[in-house]
């Protein structure tokens, strides 16, 4: 890579003191003769705090895959990057002398393999029977409830924990890696499971990644499972069933149906898993028989994502069919469901066409994507009809006409653009006439100031030269429109001659205006009126 | 009506004042050398159309055979086609013959301004391109890789560069992206400002990732196996040679057996003091894959 990026990897970063309560004892030993100045022993309480039930949001630098993301994640391990490098080693999962084993694990469970609780008091976040010593960081928390079978199958082993956690030191200047961290030291917790797409049912699988606290419960982790070199692509449904049975058992034992429904609802959160109702033996005989126990682990943070595809990027990209637009599709093993489109040498497609009169036919069409460079022409048309071109086989090529029409339609579909276009047109006219008025109205001195764009000798034209020329042209046009703009049309055209017939004019007028003939004759005595009418 | 009380002279004065204001404003606008014919909003709209924004997909690909599944198709943008598109849009604003005459008079200016605006539409790194747009090319990619890997990186170069190189945005050899957009979940459209010699399509970079190479396990269609290429624990460079098999937990699809895998890696790289978190992480780092298309 051209951009040099560096990072260093460290196995672990241990805090000087793990989280917990300490007593600080201070005393002095004086060696002098008289022991003057001896002080009393100091006893002081000291608490080293660290999170236990909840991860402060600012501690999470990034997660992968991103929360709620969908994609092909099947060859990558989910991970969480934490800002404080010592975080995974700030508590001792069980043995206080064991410094190396982190107390955090990132477990990835598929939909239905476990469930996240609602918010409960912190003491309930761990399997009943276990307690975590004070102090706790939060009065409430969430827990992950899983069966022993889920733990056996998907949880890391105690030895795995160390391999899954490391510290990374990154270059702070590399924004993509450091993401604004303050010291460039980050703790990374990886999961031990590759999230799989359901390749058999071809269905996406939703996963949840949970950062869990293993304090006091590290013994529950699987013990040296059997390694294999390959795994079946089928999604394992057995753990799913066990979990459902466990939830149903609890629901079954609930005092009434409302509580039972609540259990089903709560336990299925946030997966919204439709839990099937199962039949159980009535209470009394074989109550515990075959019903798995649910273990609880405090969850510091969790997020979900969906594995929607399989296949890695590399193989997908390398199998791509590469070509220029118009290249024939690769041969397919399946028989074609429809005839292949007919293309001409310019990769125009022969398409069905219905003209404005509703008459059917065929025409050539190519979109804006051409297989070879096309020479750009100039010119402006106002209607799409002018862009119809003759094509091969006596059919029209409607490519550009269709482009014109869709451009028009797309614009008409945007009222704001239409309004802007109309305003623009109006303003062009309005601005022009305002300018003309202004030129006539302003005083000569102001005019000179405004016309600062007139070129001075030895200098080029000023910025207003265009306007100056426009104004000058306008002035000339106003002075002698005949020479500048050409002959003008007379304001009024002579009307056609009236056909009055043989009758005298006063009589016609009197009839039409519903007046007496004498009155009309009297009115017509006004000088010039008769001549005007005639 | 208070106007009725104004003398004729007062009305005339008010009128003259309004005219003066207009004159001053138009003079100020004229003094600004950036004066353009087309208002900004319209320029943005026209340039967007030129870059095929909002164009129904059937217009781009009139037949599905032109863009079969799992294919990439390179193209030259037909500027006559986009000019026709633009003229269709402009025709909305012309109502009368006089409007058309006026439009025809300013059309060369409109065209020039829209050419320049095309390069402003997508201004990566805050460095818009200048001058009229020239040849525009691009590709349509239809692949599951588009839907499965959101945020692909696409880079085009005007001259041959090494497969491993990544030149900065402002390098003259690198072509500007005019548009990069997913038209459908699995269809990606890219438009370049120029004719590329090389196009790189790279897996999205989301920090550092860890993983394996997963593949069908030796002719067995029903199971998967995985490998990692071994790396030198001190220099992090690839050791080459045979990949190391990754072990899984029995009866648990996708769950790694890290102890066994670590042992296999140790054996391969010739270490014997146990693989710690950092060493295992180093072996499992996966760099984003880059597909190189040449002679496009």
Describe this structure in words.
The complex is a heterodimer of chains A (534) and B (296). Chain A is of the alpha+beta class. Helices cover 26% and strands 21% of the residues of chain A. Chain A contains 14 helices and 23 strands. In chain A, strands 5, 8, 9, 10, 11, 14 and 17 form a seven-stranded mixed beta sheet that branches. A five-stranded antiparallel beta sheet of chain A has the order 1-12-13-7-4. In chain A, a hairpin with a 5-residue loop joins strand 22 (389-390) and strand 23. The longest helix of chain A is centred in the last third of the chain and has 27 residues, at 415-441. Chain B is an alpha+beta fold and 296 residues long. Chain B is built from eight helices and 13 strands. Chain B has helices spanning 8-31, 40-50, 57-60, 79-91, 97-121, 144-148, 258-269, 277-284, and strands at 71-77, 136-142, 153-157, 174-184, 187-193, 198-202, 209-211, 213-217, 220-228, 244-246, 248-249, 285-286, 290-294. In chain B, the strands form three sheets. Chain B has a seven-stranded antiparallel beta sheet with strand order 1-2-5-4-3-6-13. A three-stranded antiparallel beta sheet of chain B has the order 8-9-10. Chain B is elongated. Chain B starts with 7 loop residues before the first helix and ends with a strand. The model of chain B is unreliable at 1-5 and 30-34 (pLDDT under 50). The interface between A and B is large, with 142 and 129 residues.
